[in-house]
Amino acid sequence: MVSSGNDLEEPKFGEFRPGDEERVSDLIRRMSGEGEQLRLRDKSPAYYRWMYGENPSGRAIVHSARHGEEVVASFALAPKAFMIDGQRVVVGKTMDMFTDPAWQGRGLMGRCTAAVFQQAASAGIPGWYVTPSVNSYPIFTDRWNYQEPFSLVYRLRVVPPRLLRPRLRLPAGYALEAVEAFDTSVDELWQRASKGYQVAQVRDAAYLNWRYVANPDRYDLLTLRHHGRLMGVVVLGWTVRRGIRVGELMELMHDPADMETLRLLVRAAAARAGDRGCRLLQAWSVPGTRLDGRCAGPACACAAAR
User: Fold this and answer.
1) Do 12-143 and 153-304 fold alike per CATH?
2) Kindly report the CA angle at 151 between 200 and 305, in degrees rounded to 5?
3) pLDDT for 30-72, tens place per residue?
4) Is the confidence at residue 163, as pLDDT, over 70?
5) Using an 8 Å Cβ cutoff, are 96 and 155 in contact?
6) Phi, psi of 76 (to 5 degrees)
7) 192 has a pLDDT exceeding 50
8) Which of 98, 99, 101, 57 is nearest to 78 (CA)?
9) Which of 183, 169, 161 is CA-nearest to residue 264?
10) Most buried of 24, 132, 191, 199 (most Cβ within 10 A)?
């Protein structure tokens, strides 16, 4: 049942509380517009229980407006651990900004966001970021003065049908394995990989297992070893966009100087995407960076989407 914004009783504001997973899930699923033509991620109550309550970097800060037993507006900020100039820093990622259409234009979101930002600052979180939608972009930049230090580009690689797809062959000494979870060898790989970046989100075993194993969504986890040593990790998800099944390169971790591992990881991801019935393999990258150049090059052959 959806309440009417014309009711006389004003909504009540407060922090996320037990049982709100179902209410937030209901609000977001009604407004997401997903269906057979579009499916981006899980939006079940289990997802919000995992995202808001089980993050190894800390519980999410969530404030909502309630009308009776319904959540009619909600906003969240999740802690994320980054390495910045060699120092570990916890910042916030803002997410899930939704107001029931019947309640829009009444200042509900302004009160929710103000409460979230104040609580985050009081908790010592020094700043926050967002990957906005087209609709929310002007709100973040104009109303809250978010800065855009870089842009993102979608890169796509066409996945041939099975009969036309060449068999994945690995050079001598390399072994590709599908795993159920990441062990501590990922921590050593992360230490090697992170040295190549001034700013990077921490991708140790604790984070990766929370993000991709505990997550109610399902992912393919692949590891590449050379004579037993872990050389790289790739995580593949999948979405539906305009009715087309698309493989998503969620993680691509390796020593930045190791071009051979990068080439093999992307080829392995494309092969697995094809096995999952995907017609495209997609990744985000930052134009002008070393990784973007390599994604566009012959090793990966991922063209920028237009």
Assistant:
1) yes
2) 110
3) 887 666 666 767 889 999 999 999 999 999 999 999 999 999 9
4) no
5) no
6) -135, 155
7) yes
8) 57
9) 169
10) 24
Residue 1 pLDDT class (50, 70, 90 cuts): very low
> What pTM does this model have?
0.89
d(C-alpha 298, C-alpha 77), whole Å = 38
* Both tokens assigned to 78: 């999740």
DSSP assignment of 121-157, as one string?
Answer: HHTT---EE----TTTHHIIIIIS----S---EEEEE
pLDDT tens-place string over residues 62-97: 999 999 999 999 999 999 999 999 999 999 999 999
First to last CA, the chain: 40
d(CA 149, CA 129): 11
Domain 153-304 = CATH 3.80.10.10: no
Q: Which fold does the domain 12-143 belong to in CATH?
A: Aminopeptidase (3.40.630)
Contact call for residues 212 and 221 (beta carbons, < 8 A): yes
Domain boundaries, the chain: 12-143, 153-304
